[in-house]
Amino acid sequence: MIDSPLRAIAPSEIASLYRDGAVLLKNVLPQRWLNILEEGLEQANRQPGGMSSNVDGPLRIDQFPSSQSPALARFVAESPIAELVGRVLDSPVRFYMDQMFYKPAGEIEPTPWHQDTCYYNIEGQDLVRAWVSPDPVPREISMEVVRGSHRWNVTYHSWVGRPLEEDPEGAERAIKAMAAGEPVIGVEAHKTWSYANAFRDKSMPAAPDIATYKDSFDILGWDFEPGDVLLFHGHILHGAEGGCHSTQPRRAHASMWAGNDIRYMHRLGQVVPDPEGLYRYKPRSGDLLASFPDIFPIVWQPR
């Protein structure tokens, strides 16, 4: 059963998400869910699965950590997160996937500016991320977004993976998979995955150099406190500053939620595997996620 948030979402907060592409909902998660979140992140950190990778030194990123941690599975299924997303979208919502980001105390490395959309075989507008942490996260190491970039109507290629020309045989297999309507990254990647498995699809444009020309962009950022939830659109450009020292780890959980219009789409530059159970259905580009209700059940819907 889904638990309720501590307060209702204001219409102005919903408007902010649609206008700006992101909104920080202050003080909406009860303390018991922060305790479960912290337990789950520590569980996942102690017991990495096959989809755990270190990036830029000590930064640890896990894909689908709720499949490894019972506490995170409960957080996804029962916390107020699904209702918060559903209220904003005014739509039934389906859980797509989640990630853990674990930056140990010490020097905090920056997160490059990127979109999320290009990493997955999905497309559509009703795609929202929920970013939460059991720790205070000051603005200087918290997530930032380029205001309104979710409405630029462009998908950039990912900043991970290798150029197609560096692995001609692998590139040929990937292109053949695309032509056959098959995912470029197969189900076996759930046990052998790394960011290096992906290809960089240069047919898509590179993201603008926001880090170098940051003053030229309209940047939003926040001081995050436990109990807050940051919601942001799947298409928005986002990143995080670094280069500073933190006396505590920056632990975060990001879940991805799909509304009514989210569809499957094969991508040559796919980085993250499809949810494991989806492979047996051999989905085609254009199939609604709602076509696979046992893989993507409705977690919350308006009454």
TrEMBL record:
InterPro entries in the record: Phytyl_CoA_dOase-like
Top-level taxon of origin: Bacteria
SUPFAM superfamilies from the UniProt entry: Clavaminate synthase-like
Cited Pfam families: PhyH (PF05721)
Gene3D superfamilies: q2cbj1_9rhob like domain
PANTHER family: PHYTANOYL-COA DIOXYGENASE (PTHR20883:SF49), PHYTANOYL-COA DIOXYGENASE DOMAIN CONTAINING 1 (PTHR20883)
Protein name: Phytanoyl-CoA dioxygenase
Organism placement in taxonomy: Bacteria, Pseudomonadati, Pseudomonadota, Gammaproteobacteria, Cellvibrionales
